[in-house]
């Protein structure tokens, strides 16, 4: 927050507190020249207005609220750039990467910490309480955990918290995000590979036209050939011509028969599973513009024990 904006915020907060106090004092004074309990001369529908002071309980609550507000704003951040006397913050909001986050989290731990970071304290408490549970599960194989209903529930909750934003709460993915339930794996669906994918992330990249000397006029025929690989409706004559374009080098990644290559993360073009859509337009777009997809590495975000549990849940989705 800029200094000017901070000053404006502080001024507004102080003005509200001071105005509230002044209003309370003003309301305590009789400005009507009437005795307490005397009629104010206003009668409506049989109800007469009487000159009565503010109820004591209301006034006391007003005072308590103002005093609480002053104390809270003095102890906690809330007035511009003022950090509060307790030097408390809900989270390390200024960090730019995981390394800075780790350093800030360590600085917030222990009795000698100079800043009370609520989030970091809660994470430390959670790790101390639940860390042994995760460690016990991590000692078991992913295949065994996939059969453990309680472990699957924990893995599912971790998945929903961290993975569902891309893959969906049902893990069925969406355009550009793999369906984890269909058994079609770009890099392999065995337990070890799934964990490796989660731990280190993946960077999938296909350059425009595969980086090959494929002319624009060849693309429609190549699309027909790609569609033919999964027995989709296609123009047979165009597909024959498109096979020649495919053999210019597409096979190097996708295989001679379009079966893909899990070592490279090259999709299987024969199984009918389309990450970016299987329409003619979508296939042409993939060929012309290429595709680039990134899944982040989770080992430094969640730690291996939690990744192990998520891996067991993901593995169970296509192996139940």
Automatic annotation (TrEMBL):
Heme c 1 binds at residues 163, 166-167, 295. Its main location: membrane. Its cofactor is heme c. It comes from the Bacteria. One of its GO terms (biological process) is proton transmembrane transport. GO terms for molecular function: electron transfer activity; heme binding; iron ion binding; oxidoreductase activity. Residues 150-230, 237-318 form the Cytochrome c domain. GO terms for cellular component: plasma membrane. Keywords: Cell inner membrane, Cell membrane, Electron transport, Heme, Hydrogen ion transport, Ion transport, Iron, Membrane, Metal-binding, Oxidoreductase, Repeat, Respiratory chain, Transmembrane, Transmembrane helix, Transport. It is found in: Cell inner membrane. Heme c 2 binds at residues 206, 250, 253-254. The keyword Membrane applies. The keyword NADP does not apply. Pathway: Energy metabolism; oxidative phosphorylation. It holds the Pfam family Cytochrome_CBB3. InterPro entries: CcoP_N (IPR032858), CcoP_N_sf (IPR038414), Cyt_c-like_dom (IPR009056), Cyt_c-like_dom_sf (IPR036909), Cyt_C_IC (IPR008168), Cyt_c_oxidase_cbb3_su3 (IPR004678), Cytochrome_c_Oxidase_Subunit (IPR050597). The chain crosses the membrane at residues 7-26, 57-76. Belongs to the CcoP / FixP family. Component of the cbb3-type cytochrome c oxidase. PANTHER family: CBB3-TYPE CYTOCHROME C OXIDASE SUBUNIT FIXP. This is Cbb3-type cytochrome c oxidase subunit. It comes from Ferrimonas marina.
